Amino acid sequence: QVQLVESGGGLVQPGGSLRLSCAASGIAFSMYGMHWYRQGTGKQRELVASITKGGSTNYADSVKGRFTISRDNDKGTVSLQMNSLKSEDTAVYYCNAVFLSSLSYWGQGTQVTVSS
User: Given Cys at both, which of 77, 81, 103, 111 links 99, Cβ 3.0 to 4.6 Å?
Assistant: First the structure.
């Protein structure tokens, strides 16, 4: 059974930091591209950051220089370090695992709220 379990969300003030983690089980983690998406209230889900199985990263323009995605293949985890958070970063953040564009698995999401 495939499971992706996100953790680390919460309430943070503008300018603060949070670190999200996603623990994967039931998949050959090192073979999967990993992605973080987010969906704000009334908005479409958007891709925030990606990391290939080889470790190459890519970011949405809105988070470049503030967010960092990383992975630990031994532990089967992918993380998203979020710094200098803004109110517009408020959303539910989802972990996504993709294999050869044919298999895709999603976590249940974790809420991030940036507010004073």
Answer: 103
**Beta strands at 18-25 and 46-51: parallel, antiparallel or unpaired:** unpaired
- Nearest-angstrom CA–CA distance, 36 and 47: 6
How many Cα atoms occupy the beta-carbon half-sphere of 88 within 13 Å? 4
Q: What's the distance, CA 70 to chain centroid?
A: 10
Q: Which residues contact residue 86 at a Cβ distance below 8 angstroms, ignoring those fewer than 6 apart? A: 14, 114
- Element (DSSP H or E) covering residue 49: strand 46-51
Give the span between the Cα atoms of 100 and 90, in whole angstroms.
Answer: 30
What are the tens digits of pLDDT across the range 50-76?
Answer: 999 999 999 999 999 999 999 999 999
* Lookup: tokens for 116: 């004073």
